[in-house]
Amino acid sequence: MDAKAVRQIRSFNRTVAERIGAVNDRFLHQRRPMNESRLIWEIGLKGEELRTLRMRLGLDSGYLTRVMGSLAKQGLVRVRLAKEDGRVRFAHLTKRGLRVRTELDGRSDELALQILDVLTEKQREQLTSAMRQVERLLEASMIHVATEDPTSPDAIWCFEQYFAELKSRFEPGFDPARSISAEAHELVPPRGALVIARLRGQPVGCGAVTFAKKRVAELRRMWVSPPLRGLGVGRRVINELERLATEANVHLVTKLAIQTETKM
Amino acid sequence: MDAKAVRQIRSFNRTVAERIGAVNDRFLHQRRPMNESRLIWEIGLKGEELRTLRMRLGLDSGYLTRVMGSLAKQGLVRVRLAKEDGRVRFAHLTKRGLRVRTELDGRSDELALQILDVLTEKQREQLTSAMRQVERLLEASMIHVATEDPTSPDAIWCFEQYFAELKSRFEPGFDPARSISAEAHELVPPRGALVIARLRGQPVGCGAVTFAKKRVAELRRMWVSPPLRGLGVGRRVINELERLATEANVHLVTKLAIQTETKM
DNA sequence: TGTATTCTCTGACTGCAGTCAGAGAATATA
DNA sequence: TATATTCTCTGACTGCAGTCAGAGAATACA
Protein backbone atom coordinates (compact mmCIF):
# COMPACT_ATOMS: atom_id res chain seq x y z
CA MET A 1 0.00 0.00 0.00
CA ASP A 2 1.10 3.56 -0.69
CA ALA A 3 4.17 2.32 -2.50
CA LYS A 4 4.18 5.41 -4.65
CA ALA A 5 3.98 7.77 -1.69
CA VAL A 6 6.76 5.87 0.03
CA ARG A 7 8.91 6.17 -3.06
CA GLN A 8 8.22 9.89 -3.29
CA ILE A 9 9.20 10.41 0.34
CA ARG A 10 12.41 8.48 -0.11
CA SER A 11 13.31 10.33 -3.26
CA PHE A 12 12.50 13.60 -1.55
CA ASN A 13 14.70 12.59 1.30
CA ARG A 14 17.63 11.90 -0.95
CA THR A 15 17.40 15.22 -2.73
CA VAL A 16 16.82 17.24 0.40
CA ALA A 17 19.60 15.50 2.27
CA GLU A 18 21.94 16.25 -0.59
CA ARG A 19 20.94 19.87 -0.96
CA ILE A 20 19.75 21.07 2.40
CA GLY A 21 21.11 18.46 4.72
CA ALA A 22 24.44 20.11 4.09
CA VAL A 23 23.31 22.92 6.33
CA ASN A 24 22.64 20.48 9.06
CA ASP A 25 26.08 19.04 8.55
CA ARG A 26 27.48 22.50 9.06
CA PHE A 27 28.75 21.24 12.37
CA LEU A 28 30.59 18.46 10.60
CA HIS A 29 33.56 18.72 8.27
CA GLN A 30 34.95 21.85 9.86
CA ARG A 31 38.27 22.53 11.42
CA ARG A 32 36.44 22.42 14.72
CA PRO A 33 35.30 19.12 16.26
CA MET A 34 31.58 18.62 15.78
CA ASN A 35 30.66 18.70 19.46
CA GLU A 36 32.49 21.95 19.98
CA SER A 37 30.39 23.52 17.23
CA ARG A 38 27.20 22.01 18.57
CA LEU A 39 27.99 23.39 22.00
CA ILE A 40 28.76 26.87 20.71
CA TRP A 41 25.41 26.76 19.00
CA GLU A 42 23.45 25.44 21.94
CA ILE A 43 24.98 27.71 24.55
CA GLY A 44 23.28 30.46 22.63
CA LEU A 45 23.44 34.19 23.11
CA LYS A 46 22.49 34.20 26.77
CA GLY A 47 24.46 31.22 28.01
CA GLU A 48 23.21 27.94 29.41
CA GLU A 49 23.67 25.60 32.34
CA LEU A 50 25.97 22.65 31.73
CA ARG A 51 23.40 20.13 32.91
CA THR A 52 20.91 21.49 30.35
CA LEU A 53 23.47 21.23 27.57
CA ARG A 54 24.28 17.72 28.67
CA MET A 55 20.63 16.71 28.44
CA ARG A 56 19.96 18.49 25.19
CA LEU A 57 22.94 17.11 23.32
CA GLY A 58 22.96 13.78 25.11
CA LEU A 59 26.57 14.01 26.16
CA ASP A 60 28.40 12.21 28.92
CA SER A 61 29.18 14.56 31.79
CA GLY A 62 32.89 13.80 31.75
CA TYR A 63 33.03 14.27 28.01
CA LEU A 64 31.22 17.60 28.26
CA THR A 65 33.68 18.83 30.85
CA ARG A 66 36.55 18.12 28.51
CA VAL A 67 34.99 19.66 25.41
CA MET A 68 34.01 22.68 27.48
CA GLY A 69 37.57 22.93 28.72
CA SER A 70 38.83 22.93 25.17
CA LEU A 71 36.43 25.73 24.21
CA ALA A 72 37.47 27.71 27.28
CA LYS A 73 41.13 27.30 26.38
CA GLN A 74 40.36 28.68 22.93
CA GLY A 75 38.75 31.67 24.59
CA LEU A 76 35.32 30.97 23.14
CA VAL A 77 33.37 30.33 26.34
CA ARG A 78 33.62 31.12 30.02
CA VAL A 79 32.23 28.83 32.69
CA ARG A 80 31.20 30.00 36.15
CA LEU A 81 29.10 28.78 39.02
CA ALA A 82 25.36 29.23 38.80
CA LYS A 83 24.01 31.80 41.23
CA GLU A 84 21.35 29.81 43.02
CA ASP A 85 22.97 26.39 43.09
CA GLY A 86 26.64 25.89 43.80
CA ARG A 87 26.69 22.49 42.14
CA VAL A 88 25.54 23.80 38.80
CA ARG A 89 27.88 25.46 36.34
CA PHE A 90 26.85 28.01 33.80
CA ALA A 91 28.55 28.54 30.43
CA HIS A 92 28.33 31.62 28.24
CA LEU A 93 30.03 32.68 25.05
CA THR A 94 32.77 35.29 24.98
CA LYS A 95 32.87 37.88 22.23
CA ARG A 96 34.99 35.57 20.13
CA GLY A 97 32.58 32.76 20.85
CA LEU A 98 29.68 34.86 19.69
CA ARG A 99 31.54 35.67 16.50
CA VAL A 100 32.11 31.97 15.79
CA ARG A 101 28.43 31.31 16.41
CA THR A 102 27.48 34.02 13.97
CA GLU A 103 29.71 32.39 11.36
CA LEU A 104 27.94 29.09 11.95
CA ASP A 105 24.66 30.89 11.51
CA GLY A 106 25.86 32.50 8.32
CA ARG A 107 26.48 29.16 6.68
CA SER A 108 22.78 28.39 6.77
CA ASP A 109 21.81 31.70 5.24
CA GLU A 110 24.48 31.30 2.60
CA LEU A 111 23.13 27.97 1.47
CA ALA A 112 19.57 29.22 1.46
CA LEU A 113 20.60 32.16 -0.70
CA GLN A 114 22.49 29.82 -3.03
CA ILE A 115 19.29 27.89 -3.57
CA LEU A 116 17.21 30.98 -4.17
CA ASP A 117 19.84 32.53 -6.42
CA VAL A 118 19.11 30.61 -9.60
CA LEU A 119 15.34 30.67 -9.21
CA THR A 120 12.96 33.21 -10.60
CA GLU A 121 10.73 35.23 -8.30
CA LYS A 122 7.79 33.02 -9.11
CA GLN A 123 9.77 29.85 -8.48
CA ARG A 124 10.92 31.20 -5.13
CA GLU A 125 7.37 31.71 -4.09
CA GLN A 126 6.46 28.24 -5.25
CA LEU A 127 9.38 26.76 -3.36
CA THR A 128 8.69 28.48 -0.07
CA SER A 129 5.01 27.74 -0.26
CA ALA A 130 5.61 24.07 -1.04
CA MET A 131 8.18 23.92 1.75
CA ARG A 132 5.69 25.39 4.18
CA GLN A 133 3.19 22.74 3.25
CA VAL A 134 5.65 19.88 3.53
CA GLU A 135 6.80 21.18 6.87
CA ARG A 136 3.24 21.49 8.12
CA LEU A 137 2.33 17.96 7.14
CA LEU A 138 5.56 16.53 8.48
CA GLU A 139 4.85 18.27 11.75
CA ALA A 140 1.43 16.68 11.76
CA SER A 141 3.17 13.32 11.60
CA MET A 142 5.40 14.30 14.51
CA ILE A 143 2.54 14.95 16.90
CA HIS A 144 1.97 12.38 19.61
CA VAL A 145 -1.25 12.01 21.55
CA ALA A 146 -1.23 10.50 25.03
CA THR A 147 -3.11 10.39 28.30
CA GLU A 148 -1.74 12.80 30.89
CA ASP A 149 -2.25 14.10 34.38
CA PRO A 150 -4.76 17.02 34.39
CA THR A 151 -2.96 18.76 37.26
CA SER A 152 0.38 19.06 35.46
CA PRO A 153 1.56 22.54 34.43
CA ASP A 154 1.24 21.65 30.75
CA ALA A 155 -2.32 20.45 31.22
CA ILE A 156 -3.26 23.63 33.02
CA TRP A 157 -1.62 25.65 30.28
CA CYS A 158 -3.77 23.84 27.72
CA PHE A 159 -6.91 24.52 29.73
CA GLU A 160 -5.98 28.17 29.89
CA GLN A 161 -5.72 28.30 26.13
CA TYR A 162 -9.08 26.61 25.87
CA PHE A 163 -10.79 28.97 28.27
CA ALA A 164 -9.12 32.01 26.78
CA GLU A 165 -10.54 31.00 23.45
CA LEU A 166 -13.98 30.40 24.90
CA LYS A 167 -13.82 33.79 26.53
CA SER A 168 -12.91 35.53 23.30
CA ARG A 169 -15.55 33.64 21.36
CA PHE A 170 -18.43 34.05 23.75
CA GLU A 171 -18.95 36.71 26.30
CA PRO A 172 -16.51 37.25 29.12
CA GLY A 173 -17.42 37.09 32.77
CA PHE A 174 -16.54 33.68 34.14
CA ASP A 175 -13.40 32.72 35.96
CA PRO A 176 -11.58 29.88 34.13
CA ALA A 177 -9.11 29.30 36.99
CA ARG A 178 -11.88 28.27 39.37
CA SER A 179 -13.36 25.98 36.79
CA ILE A 180 -9.96 24.38 36.10
CA SER A 181 -9.14 23.39 39.64
CA ALA A 182 -12.69 22.39 40.41
CA GLU A 183 -12.90 19.82 37.67
CA ALA A 184 -9.43 18.33 37.60
CA HIS A 185 -10.48 15.30 39.62
CA GLU A 186 -13.16 14.51 37.06
CA LEU A 187 -10.52 14.01 34.37
CA VAL A 188 -8.70 11.04 35.88
CA PRO A 189 -9.83 7.43 35.98
CA PRO A 190 -12.27 6.15 36.83
CA ARG A 191 -14.32 9.31 36.33
CA GLY A 192 -12.70 10.54 33.13
CA ALA A 193 -9.48 11.11 31.22
CA LEU A 194 -7.37 13.80 29.63
CA VAL A 195 -5.21 13.45 26.54
CA ILE A 196 -2.64 15.97 25.36
CA ALA A 197 -1.17 16.26 21.88
CA ARG A 198 2.49 17.22 21.78
CA LEU A 199 4.82 18.43 19.08
CA ARG A 200 8.51 18.34 19.96
CA GLY A 201 7.53 17.94 23.59
CA GLN A 202 5.42 21.08 23.61
CA PRO A 203 1.66 20.76 24.16
CA VAL A 204 -0.28 21.76 21.05
CA GLY A 205 -3.71 20.38 21.79
CA CYS A 206 -5.86 18.65 24.34
CA GLY A 207 -9.17 16.98 24.89
CA ALA A 208 -10.90 15.44 27.87
CA VAL A 209 -13.71 13.06 28.54
CA THR A 210 -15.85 12.50 31.62
CA PHE A 211 -17.80 9.32 32.10
CA ALA A 212 -20.76 11.26 33.41
CA LYS A 213 -23.67 8.89 33.44
CA LYS A 214 -23.94 5.21 33.05
CA ARG A 215 -22.47 4.11 29.75
CA VAL A 216 -22.36 7.68 28.43
CA ALA A 217 -19.29 9.89 28.17
CA GLU A 218 -19.01 13.58 27.57
CA LEU A 219 -16.35 15.18 25.44
CA ARG A 220 -14.86 18.34 26.94
CA ARG A 221 -12.12 20.91 26.60
CA MET A 222 -11.16 20.18 23.04
CA TRP A 223 -8.48 22.61 22.01
CA VAL A 224 -5.89 22.64 19.23
CA SER A 225 -3.19 25.27 18.78
CA PRO A 226 -4.36 27.61 15.99
CA PRO A 227 -1.33 27.22 13.67
CA LEU A 228 -1.84 23.47 13.69
CA ARG A 229 -5.54 23.39 12.93
CA GLY A 230 -6.71 21.57 9.88
CA LEU A 231 -4.12 18.83 10.26
CA GLY A 232 -6.34 16.30 11.97
CA VAL A 233 -4.98 16.80 15.47
CA GLY A 234 -8.48 17.17 16.88
CA ARG A 235 -9.58 14.02 15.13
CA ARG A 236 -6.67 12.10 16.63
CA VAL A 237 -7.44 13.44 20.10
CA ILE A 238 -11.05 12.34 19.76
CA ASN A 239 -10.01 8.94 18.48
CA GLU A 240 -7.88 8.46 21.55
CA LEU A 241 -10.65 9.63 23.86
CA GLU A 242 -13.04 7.29 22.14
CA ARG A 243 -10.65 4.45 22.66
CA LEU A 244 -10.42 5.30 26.36
CA ALA A 245 -14.21 5.54 26.59
CA THR A 246 -14.60 2.16 24.96
CA GLU A 247 -12.04 0.74 27.36
CA ALA A 248 -14.13 2.16 30.22
CA ASN A 249 -17.12 0.48 28.60
CA VAL A 250 -19.02 3.69 27.87
CA HIS A 251 -20.16 5.44 24.72
CA LEU A 252 -18.72 8.77 23.75
CA VAL A 253 -21.18 11.55 23.10
CA THR A 254 -19.91 12.55 19.73
CA LYS A 255 -22.38 15.37 19.34
CA LEU A 256 -20.15 17.54 21.47
CA ALA A 257 -17.18 16.51 19.41
CA ILE A 258 -18.87 17.78 16.30
CA GLN A 259 -19.72 21.05 18.01
CA THR A 260 -16.16 21.67 19.02
CA GLU A 261 -14.87 20.55 15.65
CA THR A 262 -15.23 24.14 14.45
CA LYS A 263 -12.36 25.11 16.72
CA MET A 264 -9.93 22.53 15.40
CA MET B 1 16.60 40.64 0.48
CA ASP B 2 14.52 37.48 0.60
CA ALA B 3 14.89 37.30 4.34
CA LYS B 4 11.52 35.61 4.61
CA ALA B 5 12.39 32.97 2.03
CA VAL B 6 15.70 32.33 3.78
CA ARG B 7 13.90 31.90 7.07
CA GLN B 8 11.42 29.50 5.49
CA ILE B 9 14.21 27.41 4.01
CA ARG B 10 16.01 27.24 7.34
CA SER B 11 12.89 26.33 9.21
CA PHE B 12 12.11 23.71 6.59
CA ASN B 13 15.57 22.37 6.98
CA ARG B 14 15.21 21.98 10.70
CA THR B 15 11.94 20.11 10.45
CA VAL B 16 13.03 17.90 7.61
CA ALA B 17 16.33 17.10 9.23
CA GLU B 18 14.52 16.12 12.38
CA ARG B 19 11.89 14.02 10.67
CA ILE B 20 13.38 12.69 7.47
CA GLY B 21 17.05 13.24 8.03
CA ALA B 22 16.78 10.34 10.40
CA VAL B 23 16.57 8.08 7.39
CA ASN B 24 19.77 9.49 6.10
CA ASP B 25 21.34 8.87 9.45
CA ARG B 26 20.29 5.27 9.17
CA PHE B 27 23.95 4.52 8.61
CA LEU B 28 24.79 6.18 11.88
CA HIS B 29 23.94 5.03 15.37
CA GLN B 30 23.88 1.36 14.53
CA ARG B 31 25.88 -1.48 15.91
CA ARG B 32 27.79 -1.40 12.64
CA PRO B 33 30.39 1.33 11.90
CA MET B 34 28.97 3.92 9.55
CA ASN B 35 31.35 3.27 6.70
CA GLU B 36 30.60 -0.42 6.75
CA SER B 37 26.91 0.38 6.30
CA ARG B 38 27.62 2.91 3.58
CA LEU B 39 29.72 0.37 1.75
CA ILE B 40 27.11 -2.35 2.00
CA TRP B 41 24.67 0.12 0.50
CA GLU B 42 26.95 1.34 -2.27
CA ILE B 43 28.18 -2.06 -3.34
CA GLY B 44 24.61 -2.66 -4.38
CA LEU B 45 22.98 -5.77 -5.71
CA LYS B 46 25.38 -6.34 -8.55
CA GLY B 47 28.66 -5.51 -6.86
CA GLU B 48 31.07 -2.71 -7.57
CA GLU B 49 34.75 -2.04 -8.22
CA LEU B 50 36.74 -0.88 -5.23
CA ARG B 51 38.08 2.16 -7.04
CA THR B 52 34.52 3.28 -7.82
CA LEU B 53 33.51 2.87 -4.21
CA ARG B 54 36.56 4.81 -3.15
CA MET B 55 35.64 7.69 -5.42
CA ARG B 56 31.97 7.66 -4.58
CA LEU B 57 32.39 7.64 -0.83
CA GLY B 58 35.58 9.66 -0.82
CA LEU B 59 37.53 7.13 1.19
CA ASP B 60 41.26 6.66 1.50
CA SER B 61 42.41 3.55 -0.32
CA GLY B 62 44.11 2.08 2.71
CA TYR B 63 41.10 2.77 4.86
CA LEU B 64 38.79 1.15 2.32
CA THR B 65 40.93 -1.96 2.25
CA ARG B 66 40.60 -2.32 6.00
CA VAL B 67 36.85 -1.69 6.16
CA MET B 68 36.40 -4.11 3.29
CA GLY B 69 38.46 -6.66 5.14
CA SER B 70 36.23 -6.30 8.15
CA LEU B 71 33.11 -6.83 6.04
CA ALA B 72 34.69 -9.86 4.41
CA LYS B 73 35.55 -11.31 7.81
CA GLN B 74 31.91 -10.90 8.81
CA GLY B 75 30.93 -12.83 5.71
CA LEU B 76 29.00 -9.93 4.21
CA VAL B 77 31.08 -9.33 1.08
CA ARG B 78 33.49 -11.18 -1.13
CA VAL B 79 36.28 -9.45 -3.02
CA ARG B 80 37.88 -10.80 -6.19
CA LEU B 81 39.96 -9.56 -9.07
CA ALA B 82 38.18 -7.75 -11.88
CA LYS B 83 38.08 -9.72 -15.10
CA GLU B 84 39.59 -7.22 -17.51
CA ASP B 85 42.10 -5.50 -15.27
CA GLY B 86 44.26 -7.36 -12.80
CA ARG B 87 44.91 -4.27 -10.73
CA VAL B 88 41.25 -3.65 -10.04
CA ARG B 89 39.33 -5.51 -7.37
CA PHE B 90 35.64 -6.12 -7.43
CA ALA B 91 33.42 -6.46 -4.37
CA HIS B 92 30.01 -8.07 -4.22
CA LEU B 93 27.61 -8.87 -1.42
CA THR B 94 27.12 -12.39 -0.12
CA LYS B 95 23.66 -13.62 0.73
CA ARG B 96 24.09 -12.39 4.26
CA GLY B 97 25.34 -9.07 2.93
CA LEU B 98 22.27 -8.75 0.77
CA ARG B 99 20.07 -9.43 3.75
CA VAL B 100 21.77 -6.67 5.76
CA ARG B 101 21.31 -4.31 2.84
CA THR B 102 17.62 -5.13 2.69
CA GLU B 103 17.33 -4.31 6.38
CA LEU B 104 18.96 -0.95 5.73
CA ASP B 105 16.50 -0.40 2.94
CA GLY B 106 13.61 -1.32 5.18
CA ARG B 107 14.42 1.43 7.63
CA SER B 108 13.65 4.04 5.00
CA ASP B 109 10.31 2.50 4.08
CA GLU B 110 9.44 2.16 7.72
CA LEU B 111 9.96 5.82 8.38
CA ALA B 112 8.06 6.84 5.29
CA LEU B 113 5.14 4.69 6.37
CA GLN B 114 5.29 6.17 9.85
CA ILE B 115 4.87 9.60 8.35
CA LEU B 116 2.01 8.55 6.12
CA ASP B 117 0.32 6.63 8.89
CA VAL B 118 -1.31 9.51 10.76
CA LEU B 119 -2.28 11.44 7.64
CA THR B 120 -5.58 11.27 5.83
CA GLU B 121 -5.69 10.23 2.19
CA LYS B 122 -6.05 13.84 1.12
CA GLN B 123 -3.15 14.96 3.25
CA ARG B 124 -0.97 12.22 1.83
CA GLU B 125 -1.65 13.48 -1.63
CA GLN B 126 -0.90 17.03 -0.56
CA LEU B 127 2.33 15.92 1.06
CA THR B 128 3.66 13.94 -1.89
CA SER B 129 2.69 16.62 -4.33
CA ALA B 130 4.35 19.37 -2.26
CA MET B 131 7.40 17.16 -1.86
CA ARG B 132 7.60 16.65 -5.58
CA GLN B 133 7.54 20.38 -6.13
CA VAL B 134 10.17 21.11 -3.51
CA GLU B 135 12.36 18.41 -4.95
CA ARG B 136 11.96 19.76 -8.45
CA LEU B 137 12.86 23.28 -7.47
CA LEU B 138 15.76 22.15 -5.34
CA GLU B 139 17.04 20.17 -8.26
CA ALA B 140 16.79 23.30 -10.37
CA SER B 141 19.13 24.95 -7.91
CA MET B 142 21.53 22.03 -8.17
CA ILE B 143 22.02 22.35 -11.90
CA HIS B 144 25.33 23.76 -13.07
CA VAL B 145 25.93 25.21 -16.49
CA ALA B 146 29.43 25.25 -17.97
CA THR B 147 31.33 25.32 -21.25
CA GLU B 148 32.40 21.90 -22.44
CA ASP B 149 34.14 20.03 -25.23
CA PRO B 150 31.67 19.22 -28.04
CA THR B 151 33.48 15.97 -28.86
CA SER B 152 33.07 14.45 -25.41
CA PRO B 153 30.73 11.46 -25.02
CA ASP B 154 28.32 13.50 -22.90
CA ALA B 155 28.17 16.28 -25.48
CA ILE B 156 27.44 13.78 -28.22
CA TRP B 157 24.78 12.18 -26.04
CA CYS B 158 23.11 15.59 -25.66
CA PHE B 159 23.20 16.18 -29.40
CA GLU B 160 21.61 12.82 -29.95
CA GLN B 161 18.77 13.78 -27.66
CA TYR B 162 18.40 17.03 -29.52
CA PHE B 163 18.32 15.41 -32.93
CA ALA B 164 16.04 12.63 -31.76
CA GLU B 165 13.60 15.25 -30.65
CA LEU B 166 13.87 17.19 -33.88
CA LYS B 167 13.27 14.00 -35.73
CA SER B 168 10.16 13.17 -33.76
CA ARG B 169 8.84 16.70 -34.05
CA PHE B 170 9.44 17.24 -37.72
CA GLU B 171 9.74 14.67 -40.38
CA PRO B 172 12.44 12.05 -40.37
CA GLY B 173 14.96 11.60 -43.13
CA PHE B 174 18.24 13.21 -42.13
CA ASP B 175 21.18 11.58 -40.46
CA PRO B 176 21.98 13.26 -37.17
CA ALA B 177 25.28 11.42 -36.72
CA ARG B 178 26.76 12.96 -39.82
CA SER B 179 25.60 16.38 -38.76
CA ILE B 180 27.08 15.95 -35.29
CA SER B 181 30.59 15.14 -36.37
CA ALA B 182 30.54 17.64 -39.21
CA GLU B 183 29.82 20.58 -36.98
CA ALA B 184 31.79 19.79 -33.85
CA HIS B 185 34.66 22.04 -34.85
CA GLU B 186 32.28 24.97 -35.14
CA LEU B 187 31.43 24.75 -31.46
CA VAL B 188 34.84 25.52 -30.01
CA PRO B 189 36.57 28.89 -29.77
CA PRO B 190 37.13 30.95 -31.72
CA ARG B 191 34.28 29.81 -33.97
CA GLY B 192 31.71 29.02 -31.30
CA ALA B 193 31.01 27.41 -27.96
CA LEU B 194 29.00 24.68 -26.30
CA VAL B 195 27.59 24.74 -22.80
CA ILE B 196 26.15 21.77 -20.97
CA ALA B 197 23.82 21.82 -17.96
CA ARG B 198 24.43 19.06 -15.46
CA LEU B 199 22.48 17.69 -12.52
CA ARG B 200 24.44 15.44 -10.18
CA GLY B 201 27.10 15.15 -12.86
CA GLN B 202 24.64 13.90 -15.45
CA PRO B 203 23.98 16.06 -18.53
CA VAL B 204 20.41 17.37 -18.55
CA GLY B 205 20.60 20.11 -21.15
CA CYS B 206 22.77 21.82 -23.68
CA GLY B 207 23.03 24.77 -25.97
CA ALA B 208 25.58 25.96 -28.50
CA VAL B 209 26.48 29.14 -30.27
CA THR B 210 28.41 29.75 -33.47
CA PHE B 211 29.91 33.12 -34.23
CA ALA B 212 28.84 32.84 -37.84
CA LYS B 213 29.21 36.25 -39.32
CA LYS B 214 30.89 39.36 -38.15
CA ARG B 215 29.49 40.46 -34.79
CA VAL B 216 26.54 38.10 -35.10
CA ALA B 217 26.11 34.79 -33.31
CA GLU B 218 23.66 32.00 -33.92
CA LEU B 219 22.06 29.98 -31.18
CA ARG B 220 21.93 26.24 -31.89
CA ARG B 221 21.15 22.86 -30.43
CA MET B 222 19.18 24.01 -27.46
CA TRP B 223 17.93 20.99 -25.60
CA VAL B 224 16.66 20.40 -22.06
CA SER B 225 15.75 17.04 -20.59
CA PRO B 226 11.95 16.78 -20.62
CA PRO B 227 11.41 16.12 -16.90
CA LEU B 228 13.36 19.29 -16.08
CA ARG B 229 11.59 21.64 -18.43
CA GLY B 230 9.90 24.69 -17.02
CA LEU B 231 12.60 25.22 -14.42
CA GLY B 232 14.57 27.85 -16.26
CA VAL B 233 17.39 25.57 -17.37
CA GLY B 234 17.09 26.80 -20.96
CA ARG B 235 17.16 30.39 -19.79
CA ARG B 236 20.34 29.75 -17.83
CA VAL B 237 21.96 28.05 -20.81
CA ILE B 238 21.13 31.02 -23.03
CA ASN B 239 22.42 33.44 -20.43
CA GLU B 240 25.71 31.64 -20.40
CA LEU B 241 25.89 31.55 -24.19
CA GLU B 242 25.08 35.22 -24.30
CA ARG B 243 27.89 35.90 -21.87
CA LEU B 244 30.27 33.93 -24.09
CA ALA B 245 29.05 35.79 -27.15
CA THR B 246 29.58 39.12 -25.46
CA GLU B 247 33.06 38.01 -24.46
CA ALA B 248 33.73 37.17 -28.10
CA ASN B 249 32.42 40.63 -28.93
CA VAL B 250 29.46 39.46 -30.97
CA HIS B 251 25.71 39.78 -30.61
CA LEU B 252 23.58 36.75 -30.01
CA VAL B 253 20.72 36.19 -32.38
CA THR B 254 18.03 35.81 -29.81
CA LYS B 255 15.35 35.12 -32.36
CA LEU B 256 16.51 31.55 -32.56
CA ALA B 257 16.52 31.36 -28.82
CA ILE B 258 12.90 32.30 -28.71
CA GLN B 259 12.07 29.72 -31.36
CA THR B 260 13.72 26.95 -29.40
CA GLU B 261 12.20 28.17 -26.15
CA THR B 262 9.18 26.04 -26.91
CA LYS B 263 11.30 22.96 -26.32
CA MET B 264 12.57 23.98 -22.93
C1' DT C 1 61.18 -3.22 -24.04
C1' DG C 2 61.73 0.04 -20.45
C1' DT C 3 59.26 3.48 -17.88
C1' DA C 4 55.32 5.64 -15.95
C1' DT C 5 50.90 5.07 -14.08
C1' DT C 6 47.12 2.85 -11.70
C1' DC C 7 45.28 0.22 -8.07
C1' DT C 8 45.59 -2.14 -3.88
C1' DC C 9 47.49 -3.27 0.41
C1' DT C 10 50.27 -2.83 4.97
C1' DG C 11 52.00 -0.26 8.72
C1' DA C 12 52.03 3.53 11.67
C1' DC C 13 49.95 7.38 12.95
C1' DT C 14 46.53 11.38 15.01
C1' DG C 15 42.35 12.90 16.84
C1' DC C 16 37.45 12.73 17.94
C1' DA C 17 33.44 10.21 19.89
C1' DG C 18 31.85 7.99 23.47
C1' DT C 19 31.85 5.03 28.02
C1' DC C 20 32.76 3.73 32.81
C1' DA C 21 34.28 4.19 37.55
C1' DG C 22 35.05 6.93 41.15
C1' DA C 23 35.94 11.19 43.89
C1' DG C 24 34.67 15.69 45.72
C1' DA C 25 31.62 19.55 46.63
C1' DA C 26 27.06 21.52 47.15
C1' DT C 27 22.41 20.84 48.07
C1' DA C 28 18.07 18.36 49.34
C1' DT C 29 15.80 15.39 52.57
C1' DA C 30 14.66 12.75 56.63
C1' DT D 1 22.64 16.49 62.02
C1' DA D 2 23.26 12.49 59.30
C1' DT D 3 22.31 10.63 54.86
C1' DA D 4 21.06 10.68 50.11
C1' DT D 5 21.15 12.99 45.87
C1' DT D 6 22.79 16.05 42.28
C1' DC D 7 26.30 17.94 39.53
C1' DT D 8 30.86 18.27 38.00
C1' DC D 9 35.39 16.74 37.26
C1' DT D 10 39.54 13.44 36.53
C1' DG D 11 41.52 9.31 34.87
C1' DA D 12 41.59 5.44 32.01
C1' DC D 13 39.66 3.25 28.50
C1' DT D 14 37.75 1.46 23.52
C1' DG D 15 36.78 2.05 18.84
C1' DC D 16 35.96 4.56 14.56
C1' DA D 17 37.39 8.14 11.18
C1' DG D 18 40.74 9.63 8.58
C1' DT D 19 45.79 10.55 6.85
C1' DC D 20 50.44 9.60 5.12
C1' DA D 21 54.28 6.94 3.34
C1' DG D 22 55.73 3.31 0.94
C1' DA D 23 55.74 -1.31 -1.34
C1' DG D 24 54.17 -4.63 -4.80
C1' DA D 25 51.64 -6.12 -8.83
C1' DA D 26 49.29 -5.21 -13.15
C1' DT D 27 48.63 -2.34 -16.95
C1' DA D 28 49.31 1.67 -20.19
C1' DC D 29 52.33 4.23 -22.90
C1' DA D 30 56.39 5.91 -25.36
What descriptors fit this protein?
homodimer; 264 residues; alpha+beta; five-stranded mixed β-sheet; three-stranded antiparallel β-sheet; 11 helices; 8 strands; disordered C terminus; DNA-binding
Please give a structural write-up:
Two copies of one chain form a homodimer. Chain A is α+β, with helices and mostly antiparallel strands. Chain A is built from eleven helices and eight strands. Chain A has helices spanning 3-19, 21-24, 34-43, 50-57, 61-73, 95-117, 121-142, 153-169, 176-183, 233-247, 254-260; strands at 48-49, 77-81, 89-93, 144-147, 192-199, 202-213, 216-224, 251-253. In chain A, strands 4-5-6-7-8 form a five-stranded mixed beta sheet, with helices on both faces. The model of chain A is unreliable at 255-264 (pLDDT under 50). The first copy, chain A, binds a DNA duplex (30 and 30 nucleotides) through residues 33-35, 50-51, 54, 59-66, 69, 85-89.
